[in-house]
Each structure stands twice: as C-alpha cells, then as structure tokens.
C-alpha cells in the first residue's frame, strides 16, 4: 500500500488568540446609560445563531460540541484551558502530584453556585463520583474512569487517587466532563432516579453551576437563554444575557447577521466567508483547532469489516479536493487522527495515498470487483452534506454506489451511536489537547457507541497500546506508544481521516472582545456590544 509523507503538514497555523483583560475597578453607569469608566458597553443581550440545539445541559448527559457550548458558560471546572490549551487554575487554585497515583487540589474559597449553595471539597467528591457512576452512564466517563477514590482532606482540599499513574488527569479535569454541579441538585437528581426518572432529568431541566452566566430558559429546537450571574466570584460578565438561537440554515444565519437579529453566527461555512468580508459592518473570527473531521466506516458491518475495503475507499478519496473545494483552504488535510498541535502528534506519520487504480485492485482483491452499494449518513450541516456529495462522486469512480441520508442532530447522534449506519461523517474536538483523548474514546473497544467509538473498531493490539500509554508516566515512552497507535490506525483504516479545519464564526462589528478556544468554545465573559 502506497503512503504519502506528512512532513509538510507540520506547518500548522499557530494559535494567535488575544486575551482580553478587563480594567480593575468600574464606576457607576453615567447618565447616558450603560457605559462605565472602562470604556466598554455594559448590558444587552447577545444573540448567537447556532446550527444545532444542545442534546443535554447535564455534563454527564452529553458528548457533543453543541451541548458543551452551552455548558461551558454555566459550569466551571477545577482547571481550565487558556487560548493555547495550557492549563490554568479555575475552581482549584493549585494542584500537585503527591505520589504516582495521588493528586491533591486546593480549592477556591467563597464560591457559590447559582442556587446560593457553597462550593467545597464535598461538592468535588460528589461530582467526580457521579460522572464515573455506572448507573448514570455518562458518555464521557472514560475521561475519569481511572479514578479510584476521592478523599476530602478539609473543606477546601481534596485528593484524587487513581488506579494507575496517570499524568493527564489535570487536563482531563479541564474537559467538560469535569464540570461542577450544585451538590443539592446532584442529590435531587439521584432522588429522581430512585423514583424511576432518567439520570440527569433534574439537572437538564435547570442546570446549576458556578459560571458567569446562569440558565434562564430553554425552548427546545428554538433557543437557550442564559443571564448574567450577578454574584460571580471572579468579576461579572459585561452582557446581561446570551441567547443561543437554533438556526440550521447557513444563509438564514447570514441574513440574521445582516439584519441584526443575531450578533454572531457559529459556525460560519467557508463558502460564506467572502460574503461576510464584503459586507460592511460584518467581520470574521478564525481559530485554529484541535479537531478532526472524518468519514467513518462501521467495521462491524459488511463489507466494512474487511480492512481492505476500508483502505480502498480511503485510497479513492482525494482529500485535497475536499479541503480546497469545500473548506476553501480553511483546513489541513489529515493523515491520521491527531492534529499537529496536540501532544502525541507524529509528524512523520505516513498515510494512505490517493490512488484510484490501486483502490480498484484492492476492492477486487476483497471480492468487490464490481463495487457495491452503500450509504453515507450525515447531519444537516451544509459543509458535511457537501462532503458527503463529494465523497459520493469520488467513490462512483471505483464502482461504489452511495446514497446520502441526512438527519437532525439529536437523531443523528442517537442512530450512529446504535451502529445502524454504513458510513458517516462526523468530527471530534480534542477537549484536552492530548493524544489520549484523540485516540482512546474514538478507537478503544470499551468506548463503542456514544462515548466516541462509532466505527465500532475492536482491535486487541490497539487496545493494549492505548491502555499502556495511559499508564505510562514517562513522556518519551508515551510519545512512542502514540506513534505506534497512529501507524496501526493508518493500516486498520476505521475511518478516512479527512482534515483538521479552522473554526470560523461571523459577527457584527459592534461585538467586541469575542474570542474562541481551539476546542471551539466561545469566550463570552468579556464580550460587549458597542454603541
């Protein structure tokens, strides 16, 4: 099988977000209304037009970016990421490894939840134990399932013991899975479960965190509204409220920017960038990412249970055509599953080269000389539908006849989580910027379905490598293990690793202070609307 070098790919665009730092003390509003001495407009409702609604507002009930986008503003974690995916204190003031399997965290004092209850070590213990509780069945439990015990040392000190040495624990706690929920609400949710309710039913109805915004209203399929937390412990937000408005159609989101019905469109299709840039009063926000967009194969279904078929289909698709034609170059062709700015990325990895004739030969060798009929599933995002159409056209060149089926976001995740699909198009945002989170949930056999392994790959050798990498504290050894894993994943080809794309958003120019993390989360605390 021919391969193509990846060395050139290492010229990944550096992340260049600018942090916005608020001035220290603010005076009372002046008579003109709303403007304080810091020169920034205070108040107002920011409207963000989004493609899809959230699946759940319970951190233990979701594993998708639209849900995490909302949760990011309601809940906080012990640790947070900065704009370069470095780790910073949040609800924890500091942390250290006491020994190979014990981490100690010192906590912020005086922090209260939106319901007025206090944040302390008991709250941390309850939240971590809940996320790994098998009865709760959190799809992100894999991020913290190495935790054996949470020990309360005092009100503001907690120790976390792991089953094996795991140096990535702080990064995992910075993921949305580590979000802190009110202890009273956790207890109420467990009480509802005892009465037969689904896990998260209480939390999802009115989520209670410590964040700078708090939940106000959810009209499913239409919008979710958050309002400013006036009692936020680390300086209040400038906006009065933020509304996440569900607008699935790209052109409608652009129209709403023009009319002012929305202030931000997230996401922005690359094909609409020209229109944004040529329209007075509109601007674009661009952010490099830690993401992967891919075409997945259901390895449990024929003919995709034959790796030669998966390799052939990968070989028959020219990624350059997709990147240039559909993303207008706002992406890098991927060779493997890890983005260049993620720990463990292998700059020397060689992938399957585009070669139509060799793809035909490989299909014939697998017994499909005349091709076969299959389907691609996708959700209603225009970019993914365009990718599906492009793949459909390219695979017809090797005799593979493809139907395209489009689903609403929630139904889509449910269906591909159950393994009903043949092929599907999806993305993965690596919320820890570590190879463990880019490989373990997507490919380990323990994580089939909603946790991430929607290709249903089951390979003992790969499982063993990923488990060993998790338990190795030596950084050079981890890198070598992830190198082996990525090489094996090229051969196994459970998915066609399409691209690492930039995140694009459109906004009105009166929106100031908006930035985005490489995980796609919008940073809204310091945003204001000018004028």
UniProtKB/TrEMBL annotation:
<dbReference type="GO" id="GO:0015833">
    <property type="term" value="P:peptide transport"/>
</dbReference>
<dbReference type="InterPro" id="IPR030678">
    <property type="entry name" value="Peptide/Ni-bd"/>
</dbReference>
<protein>
    <submittedName>
        <fullName>Peptide/nickel transport system substrate-binding protein</fullName>
    </submittedName>
</protein>
<keyword id="KW-0732">Signal</keyword>
<dbReference type="GO" id="GO:0042597">
    <property type="term" value="C:periplasmic space"/>
</dbReference>
<feature type="domain" description="Solute-binding protein family 5">
    <location>
        <begin position="87"/>
        <end position="449"/>
    </location>
</feature>
<dbReference type="InterPro" id="IPR039424">
    <property type="entry name" value="SBP_5"/>
</dbReference>
<dbReference type="InterPro" id="IPR000914">
    <property type="entry name" value="SBP_5_dom"/>
</dbReference>
<keyword id="KW-0813">Transport</keyword>
<dbReference type="Pfam" id="PF00496">
    <property type="entry name" value="SBP_bac_5"/>
</dbReference>
<dbReference type="GO" id="GO:1904680">
    <property type="term" value="F:peptide transmembrane transporter activity"/>
</dbReference>
<comment type="similarity">
    <text>Belongs to the bacterial solute-binding protein 5 family.</text>
</comment>
<dbReference type="GO" id="GO:0043190">
    <property type="term" value="C:ATP-binding cassette (ABC) transporter complex"/>
</dbReference>
